[in-house]
Amino acid sequence: MTQEEQIEKTKIFVKETLKNAEGGHDWFHILRVFNNCSLISEKEEVDAFVVKLGALLHDIADSKFHNGDETVGPKLARDFLNIIQVEKEVVDHVIQIIENISYNSSLDPSKTFKSPELDVIQDADRLDALGAIGIARTFNYGGFKNRAIYNPDILPDLNMSKEAYKKSTAPTINHFYEKLLLLKDLMNTKTGKQIAAERHEFMEQYLEQFYAEWEGEK
Question: What InterPro entries does the entry give (predicted)?
Answer without folding.
Answer: HD/PDEase_dom, HD_domain
